[in-house]
């Protein structure tokens, strides 16, 4: 494509993780299994919450949204990556690259803001337990769940638009496993000052601001827990937040490492490994963390299994 004497490419070539065929076969098995576990784990979470009325609470309403985000997020890039492990030439069209970038940015941003909404839910549960169901009424829950989707989509629209407008002067080899913002910016042959401003603004909106809100919520939560005199009461209050705190620490920790390190120190290879770890592994771990550390979820699993066995009898 050519516009105003500046060339846009029609497709990109993804370098991937390795050129060795045996290594790619091993990676196909590894990431394929991880992808299936992600779909299975998050699918089970959705099924349990849908079938067990005892889980029809605000906390699990947000967990449903998190499971949907994780399924969609990992599905936006992993299937194509798996196919590329089996192909010698790893190409993606300009349009598909833009679509992949849009959905990965939208879903990633949605998850960060959603974790902040879930932190507010945990704040109310610990700091205002007697008024929890009054405060977290259905209308507020829907609003708190809608904001992350709106912010994620709006942020992704802007960032995708300013990224995909960059001409590459014929260069089309991306040193990445997927269409990722920094990989595309590195390929540009024009000034990228606007892109750098948008990336910083995006990081503030979908990462730093939600992270500050989560931190503020947990400062109040810890202060409330410390006021509880009994050790048993403190443990119970902490268990209320343990799963969410684990997911928050993992998600924000990885993302902050990716986006806030000095660009001069960040390498394309480092970006690939860390982004893969975040995009592939985190969605698989989230349902495991919530199921293994949550008594209600484990009890729901037992009830569903019992009902299934009784129906067979």
TrEMBL record:
Protein's recorded name: Olfactory receptor
Keyword terms, alphabetized: Cell membrane, G-protein coupled receptor, Membrane, Olfaction, Receptor, Sensory transduction, Transducer, Transmembrane, Transmembrane helix
Entries under Pfam families matching the protein: 7tm_4
Name of the encoding gene: LOC101569707
GO cellular component assignments: plasma membrane
Subcellular location, record wording: Cell membrane
Family that this chain belongs to: Belongs to the G-protein coupled receptor 1 family.
Domain G-protein coupled receptors family 1 profile, chain residue ranges per copy: 41-290
